[in-house]
Amino acid sequence: MYIADYHFMDPLGLILNLLLVLASAVSLLLSARKFVHYFQLESYQFQGYFRTLQRQKAVFSCLKLSGIHLLLNVVFVGANLLLYHLDRQQFANWVAGEENYVVNDAYLLLSIVTAPLFILAVGWIGRFFRKQGMKKAEKKKFALTARLKRFYLVFFILLLVCQGAALLVSMQVKNYWFAFLGYWNVLFALLLPLLVALAAILALPIEKFIFRLYFNDAEKKLLENEKLIRIGITGSYGKTSTKFILANILSQKYNVLATPASFNTPMGVTRIIRERLTPSHQVFIGEMGARHVGEIKELSRLVHPKIGVLTAVGPQHLDTFRTIERIEKTKYELIDALPEDGFSVFLHDNAIVTKLYEKTQKPKAIAGKENGDVWAENVQVSSEGSHFTLRIKGWEPIECTAPLLGEHNIRNILMACAVAVHLGLNKEQIVRGIATLKPIEHRLQLLRSAGGITVIDDAFNTNPRSSKEALKVLSMFPGRRIIVTPGMVELGAEEEKYNYEFGQAMAKAVDVAVLVGKKHTQPIQKGLKDAGFPEENIHVMGSLDEAIAFNRQQLRAGDVVMYENDLPDHYSES
Fold this sequence. Notes:
The chain has 23 helices and 15 strands. By secondary structure, the protein is α/β, with parallel strands linked by helices.
């Protein structure tokens, strides 16, 4: 009897083989955690996922995992051969390929002892790599959502099928089946990121079906309330801040539901509608984000906006859109989706958004243009907030004070005021709504820390315009000014240029530059040096944790430190 025959015909051997298949599948499942997290961080977009794998050099992780599997396989095969040497005659028969002999006791011992040890070892591998994926403090936590649970079920089935197929193929090699099964595991470990992508493709029809059910349910819930005022806000930047500002001002008259934080994807907006919208709400504000052409159109099919706000068109997400023209087309999908009697608000920028305002034939307003619909005069900004004269076409001048940092926030307020006027708010309601604004989390959020140190948290601003505005804000503060930043990402081929310009602008506004990421910040370093910034005041750190630890040692009373942008986990260099 061949060894392989023993394993597949004897009940104990069959059970042990199935356990080996199960253990290897579980090991790969656990080892894939960080690749699955990359996929989740990229909003389950395949293009972004593969770019992340390339950027993070995922092949090296796979080689490490494959090497450990190979080593384990060598040990396992060596144990087999060693035990068979205990009976030289049986071993000689085995090498000669004789079919009719009885499996010796040593092999039975091998099956009983080695297989469970192999299971434990493979399980340890999976646990080790799962911990490796969790070793860094994650900024956006790995969330085991309902969608991810469904993905893991499909992924596990795929791994079992792969392992089962490998076992069947290995059977054909007879006496050497265990060696070939181990080498298959090495190959699976090497191809693990691709197996994650394959599982996602297999799960895609399920996700599309479930999403469509949720989408239709949310759409129905929105349309059930015929009096509900539905507002969509989009733009390359400024949309989240404008959303919160608008929600606060409109809440002086209406019961408002706005999508929280940066919930701006179809699934995110769908979830908020289904979970939080009630019949008592009078206004719904949906933030609409996009990284690909057509995504604003899909969100508009969900929200059916009556009012649309376009904040900006710029190079954000240029790595996925490829051209500014495609970004412009995508953002304008919101205005196209408005009904003929809808209302749109544009921010005057003397560029693309102004051009889009001029081409729009539906009812509209422009904010920020002197003698336009809504604009500001006598603007005074400081480290404590801003004061300005609000001008609304046909109204008397209104003096306003806002506890928000930065002149750009005044522009966001102007867009919100244009919507407020359209919806019938009076002067008192608008002034109160502006005065009661609260700093928006991670967007020029002023924090006073112990020891007389001022912290400005601008971690969620990641584009050229907002970064320049942030430097203006920082330059208003007295004391030693320190910036901690990894620079900007997702700007495509223009990324190096914008980071170089960021470095040059930084040289005029800060005293100390703490840069996070040795490779990614090279254009910033060059911009700083070319602008004459002292090299001894440039400090490059491998991670945000290192930068924070460095600051703890260096900061003193009176210092102002700004955290400008915080790279997501799949952009980290450490």
